[in-house]
Specification:
Strand order of the largest sheet: 1-4-8-5-9-19
Number of domains: 2
CATH topology of the largest domain: Aminopeptidase
Number of strands: 20
CATH architecture of the largest domain: 3-Layer(aba) Sandwich
Bound molecules: zinc ion
Structural class: alpha+beta
Number of helices: 15
Helix content: 25-40%
């Protein structure tokens, strides 16, 4: 008997310490979420069943239907919902297509509370069982603790986790800690046409009273440790065109007597990066932000599987050996990649041709505080110098078809502090503070136009298989994510109140 009692005591103790920092209110919320797991899965199943693939125009109707289902869900929570029309797009066959609407919703308008705006998307990448899925992509299927289905993690699961968190407060008749706004689109997978214009148009009205913007559309870096994303790299793409004459030539007739454009181009491309990966363009590193001790520490604590990443890449050796250097070169330093040569013969076999006009294509991933126009100038100047030293009679033209600025958030602001606190409560550990080496314009777009604090707050683990076969969200991530968002609402409300108090004290003093 004594033994049983002490075992029970031990279990109780263990239960208490595992959620040691969760308050009574939080425990009440967690309990509700745990008890309603089946209902939350049922809704995700219904949402995944809608083939809201925005890539194939024939499925636009389904995307629209998905937006209507989500709008109804938000309305049922008491939100005011507007389905904003984005106009039409022109199909290749000349027909025009009505684009799916975008959801703008709001719930709560208490001036004492902060207003948090959530961004997500409900369109998905195409998926077919024949692509190599083990289950039907549009039938949410649970196996080994994972929920498989297209959109489960990109991005229907996270959108629902946020909505479920709001619903939990409502169901428990709790006071909403914050005012909510939602901006949910159905065209993210095709580059969000119309979104930037809409944010600009709505900046004075919809966004005027928003304090914080949260995006939950990316992943953790590991499978176990939660993460917060505070930066993405930008990019600038270059076309380097070298033209000799009017038509391609035969190497038997002209080889040996002309300056071949492709030889010029290869010399130019070869002058861009050295064997250690360092970009050779003078001045390119001048504006890269200096590494502080505080930032350096962030890389040390990040959980990152270097060997695993190497295995994914399929290469034998990286340019760097240690984790910190690899992370820094993926996230906080620029990189230059050569992508291809247009006009060069690339088919199997041999063709003894001298291509007369070739276009080399490369891009540089930009980091704070590199400036697009300065980089453009540096690159053009450098390539022209290299080219002029060759005294080639060919014509060189360098152009920039595409560019996007990097994004970096202040990790010491309220938004990140609140999210860190929520992660500590729900997962019992500090998050990895991560960046993304690729270019995700959305965060920067929100920050630039609205001037609000923006955070990327992922809830999916690294092997969620976004855009690929067997996409999934783990059951645990779906529910822990729901708890995390609910806890985050409480944290941000608390911190916001403290901020308000501090600023009133300042003004009264
Ligand atoms: Zn996405």
């Amino acid at each position: 008997m004594i033994l049983i009692v002490s075992v029970v005591m031990l279990l109780l103790e263990a239960g208490r310490s595992s959620s040691s920092s969760a308050s009574g209110l939080e425990n009440q919320i967690f309990q509700y979420i745990d008890l309603h797991q089946n209902e939350f899965i049922k809704i995700l199943k219904e949402w995944v069943a809608v083939e809201s693939d925005s890539v194939q125009p024939r499925l636009t109707q389904e995307v629209t239907r998905m937006m209507e289902i989500a709008a109804a869900r938000l309305q049922a929570l008491g939100a005011t919902v507007e389905l904003a029309q984005l106009g039409t797009s022109q199909l290749p066959d000349g027909q025009s297509l009505l684009l799916p609407p975008l959801i703008l919703a709001e719930l709560g308008k208490d001036p004492q509370k902060p207003t948090v705006c959530f961004y997500g998307h409900l369109d998905v990448q195409p998926a077919k069982k024949e692509d190599g899925w083990e289950t039907d992509p549009y039938t949410l299927t649970e196996s080994d603790g994972n929920l498989y289905g297209r959109g489960a993690s990109d991005n229907k699961g996270p959108v629902l986790a946020w909505i479920n968190a709001v619903e939990t407060f409502k169901a428990l008749k709790l006071d909403m800690p914050v005012n909510f706004k939602f901006i949910i689109e159905g065209l993210e997978e095709v580059g969000s046409p119309g979104l930037e214009k809409l944010i600009k148009d709505k900046n004075q009205l919809f966004f005027s009273d928003v304090d914080y913007i949260v995006i939950s559309d990316n992943l953790w870096l590991s499978n176990r440790k939660p993460a917060l994303t505070y930066g993405t790299r930008g990019s600038i793409c270059f076309f380097v065109e070298v033209q000799g004459g009017e038509r391609d030539l035969h190497s038997g007739t002209f080889g040996g007597i002309i300056h071949e454009p492709i030889t010029d181009l290869i010399a130019l491309l070869d002058s861009l990066v050295d064997i250690s990966g360092r970009i050779l363009i003078p001045g390119i590193y001048d504006d890269v932000s200096i590494l502080t001790e505080e930032e350096k520490k962030l890389y040390e604590s990040v959980e990152f599987d270097v060997e695993g990443h190497k295995n994914i890449s399929g290469v034998k050796k990286f340019l760097y050996d240690n984790k910190e250097e690899i992370l820094m070169n993926m996230w906080r330093y620029p990189s230059l990649s050569i992508h291809g040569i247009e006009g060069a013969f690339h088919e199997p076999g041999i063709k003894t041709v001298i291509p007369i006009r070739v276009i080399g294509k490369f891009s540089i991933r930009l980091v704070p505080h590199m400036n697009i126009s300065i980089v453009e100038h540096q690159v053009k100047q450098y390539l022209e110098d290299i080219f002029s030293k060759r005294s080639s009679p060919n014509k060189l033209m360098v152009s920039v078809p595409l560019s996007a600025v990097p994004w970096l958030a202040d990790i010491n602001n309220t938004l990140y502090t609140a999210a860190k606190g929520a992660i500590k409560t729900v997962f019992g550990q500090d998050p990895d503070m991560i960046r993304d080496g690729s270019t995700i314009p959305i965060a920067r777009m929100f920050q630039n136009i609205t001037k609000k604090s923006v955070m990327m707050f992922p809830i999916g683990d690294a092997d969620a298989g976004e855009h690929s076969q067997n996409e999934k969200i783990s059951r645990s991530n779906y529910f822990q994510g729901t708890k995390l968002f609910a806890t985050f609402f409480l944290e941000i409300a608390k911190l916001h109140e403290q901020l308000q108090e501090a600023s009133t004290m300042k003004t009264t003093n």
